[in-house]
Amino acid sequence: MRWSRTHPALVVASALAGCSLAPTYKTPPTAPPPPSYREVGDWKQAEPADAAARGPWWGIFQDPALDALENRVSASNQNLKAALARLEEARAQTRIARAGYFPTITADANAARERQSINSPTYSGVGVFNDFQLEGDFSYEIDVFGRVRNTVASARATQEASAADRAVLDLSTHAELASDYFTLRSDDAQASLLDHTVADYAQAQQLTENLYNGGAAPLSDLEQARAQLQTAKTQAADIRLRRAQTEHAIAVLIGDQASAFHIDPTPLPADTVPPAVDPGLPSALLERRPDVASAERLVAAANARIGVARAAYFPVFSLTAVAGFESTAVSNWITAPSRLWSLGASSPAAAPAGVLTLFDGGLHRAQSAFAHAAYDEQVADYRGTVLTAYQEVEDNLAALRELEMESVSEAAAVAATASALQQAQYRYQGGIVTYLEVVTEENASLSAQLSAADIQMRRLNASVLLVKALGGKWENPLANQTTTTADQAP
Known about the structure:
CATH superfamily: Outer membrane efflux proteins (OEP)
CATH architecture: Up-down Bundle
Radius of gyration: 38 Å
Helix content: 55-70%
Oligomer: single chain
Largest sheet: 5 strands, antiparallel
Number of domains: 1
């Protein structure tokens, strides 16, 4: 088919095809970031880390066992696999929306034998006849007011938000594993301490029982020794329960069966301290956090949906065409005289179709109000996410600073209670004091040692949470390039 002249309606539609009714999108403003984190203090000098890439941040702990577990998370964690599937769904939704940019072409073939009613107003004098049809249908929506483009923009922004959500889950899962791992190692240290304590208490009970049988100690001393031993056994059993549950949680994180997974007990060394983590500048935090990126992309998607809602007020222009063959006999079905075609809507009108809703009972107005309210909701969520990001960094900076001071004071308490226990044992052996004083000092010493182990675990977990709050470990690629160049220099 050849056109002798361009149809005026197509010219107008083409001229309007660049129109979009969505508001011009800009990232919603938030409160200006502070020049530095308030809780840093003298703990760590802030340094910028712009244009940096996130990597396997758990390597800063220099623990091969932790590295091996973390490497299994990305490949085997079922929540991450589900998140990847959700990302693929979002990508497919974007492709579905993009299909609106292109026409739809279908083919239809049918054969029928029909009988016309003699009383029909369209009766042509032929009672019974055959009807063979072969048609190709073409339909295309002319995106005059940007409905299709804004639908695609919304789907693409939602896809980017889904990718950021997967990054959030990946970061959270790795952080949860690191936290569980350090908790497990702390449980091992406390279990080892309690096992030694149970052995010591058992010896003390035996000694007290011998003294009681020899008439050198009262019954109350023996009962106190028994109670102290049983209490220590209870604490040891409770620690083993906590360790088992933590081990099961690690198994789930790496996609393994809890009943088949086991980590050999390895107490956390007493001198283990968290590595120094550079928090960088607050102004760089929003570039690091994937949850902030997800919230911002959802705002962009909501903004595009406003354009889709506005486009509903205006006509929808569509172009349809049909071409094919129709005949009453197979012998001349696919021949030139049997050709048919139409251009327009459902009738052979030589013009595109335009549909405008004149009355809908307030439907379009409600849809537009819904789109604006959804946008305001996403803006509020985005700003709330930003505020939470700064809060989490400040919380864990404060935790690291305060826990470091707690570890120093608790170490002094461990030394003091150990010395007091030794003096109490000497006095008891000399018959100066009762066994109650020994029990009191032993309990104080055990409590101080358990508290020191707990503070150590909390310090390590706080460093993990700080890395998570910062969006992962960040390294300056320029520094690596500089090192490489220096190494290659003659």
